[in-house]
Design brief:
Elements: H1 2-25, H2 27-50, H3 61-108, H4 122-127, H5 129-154, H6 157-187, H7 192-200, H8 203-245, H9 250-260, H10 267-283, H11 287-312, H12 320-354, H13 360-366
Helix pairs in contact: 1-2, 2-3, 2-6, 2-8, 2-12, 3-5, 3-6, 3-10, 7-8, 8-9, 8-11, 8-12, 9-10, 10-11, 12-13
């Protein structure tokens, strides 16, 4: 009995390692398909919102999901155009921002004067603690000044922006493939229940499987749809803050903040760092960047601790520790897309494990309150 359980554990670990290796090696093929399935779940949840529109409540599911897909495409098209236009306008201005940063670092860490001053003796330093502190401060200032000079002379910020623009173009190709997959999946959504019944044969098995897919669609779709609305609210608030403070390309930074907010816990604060650092380069001082960082962080805290818990409620019943571990695993496999999809993937895993008596305890351990 004990040996059988040990064998089962090692077998499960081996399967997990092989599946992880497959996901890592087949990223270019699997990621668009998985993203299309997640997008279909968003459309499934959005179709319920479309059904509330007068005159569309009695329409078939595929038509409402198609209308939701058109809305998503329009939103993505508008965001992409805005991002490309902002980056194209940003690139010519980068040399000005680079000079502002150089002047700021030069003001903070002026080059130490050379010549005429010999090295202090050890006895002099030991006799005066303040001399030790001054000497250490001078050494740190010199090191930082040399690093800043080397950074701004060797790093071509304009080339980095061009690289970012080309990455955005490749992302457009990935998005096209994902939407193509989602469109074909959408065309098969009406016949999917019949396929399940024919595949599993017995009514109890097919009903259990369909109930599992229904719960996955409901939980993941509700989570992603609600999270998208929260991110839009956060992006609009940050856009207003940046516009009032006069930070350029506020729409670009608002979109970046909204997208990174899909990453649990750390994404929102990483998103705030981008406009804050850009504000330092734009103004060449710390006053406006610090004010912007404080206001955007306050917005993050209010939305993350008050608005988001009320809107998401119990749609994703995952332990915070499990979320952190899944974030580390999926981000190591797929980078930023994996970090964004970490919560949906782990939720799907918990739901699947909860449908079988043998794996139900594992699902309970993954959940926040043990109620699966």
């Amino acid at each position: 009995m004990f040996q059988g359980r040990i064998s089962t554990i090692f077998f499960a670990i081996g399967i997990t390692i092989m599946v992880g290796w497959l996901f890592y090696v087949g990223k270019d093929i699997i990621l668009p398909i998985v993203t299309a399935v997640i997008l279909l779940q968003i459309l499934y949840a959005a179709s319920a919102t479309v059904a509330r529109i007068p005159g569309l409540g009695m329409t078939p599911l595929w038509l409402r999901a198609t209308l939701a897909l058109i809305g998503v495409l329009a939103l993505l098209f508008a965001m992409t155009r805005m991002l490309v236009a902002s980056l194209q306008n940003l690139v010519p201005s980068l040399p000005v921002y680079q000079r502002n940063l150089e002047n700021l670092f030069a003001a903070w860490f002026p080059a130490p004067a050379t010549g005429g001053i010999g090295q202090p003796q050890v006895s002099e330093l030991m006799a005066s603690p303040s001399a030790i502190f001054d000497r250490g401060t001078e050494a740190v200032a010199k090191a930082v000044s040399e690093f800043a000079t080397r950074f701004f002379t060797e790093i071509d910020i304009a080339a980095l922006a061009q690289s970012l623009l080309s990455s955005l173009t490749s992302f457009g190709g990935f998005l096209f493939i994902t939407i193509l997959y989602a469109s074909f999946l959408l065309s098969e959504i009406t016949g999917f229940p019949e396929k399940v019944r024919r595949a599993f044969g017995s009514d109890s098995a097919s009903t259990d499987t369909l109930n599992m897919f229904t719960r996955i669609n409901h939980d993941i779709g509700s989570y992603l749809a609600t999270k998208t609305l929260i991110n839009i609210i956060l992006g609009v608030v940050c856009w207003l803050i940046l516009r009032i403070l006069g930070v350029e390309y506020a729409a670009l930074w608002a979109i970046i903040i909204g997208l990174l907010n899909y990453i649990p816990y750390i994404g929102s604060f990483v998103g705030v760092a981008f406009p804050a650092l850009f504000a330092v380069a734009q103004f060449g001082s710390l006053t406006v960047p610090l004010i912007a960082t404080g206001l955007m962080t306050a917005a993050q805290v209010v939305i993350g601790n008050i608005v988001e818990p009320k809107m998401l409620s119990k749609s994703v019943n995952l332990s915070p520790m499990v979320v952190l571990v899944s974030l580390a695993i999926w981000s190591s496999l797929w980078g930023i897309p994996g970090a964004i999809l970490a919560v949906p993937f782990t939720t799907i895993l918990m739901i699947v494990l909860a449908r079988r008596p043998g794996t139900r305890p594992i699902a309970a351990l993954l959940s926040s309150d043990g109620n699966v």
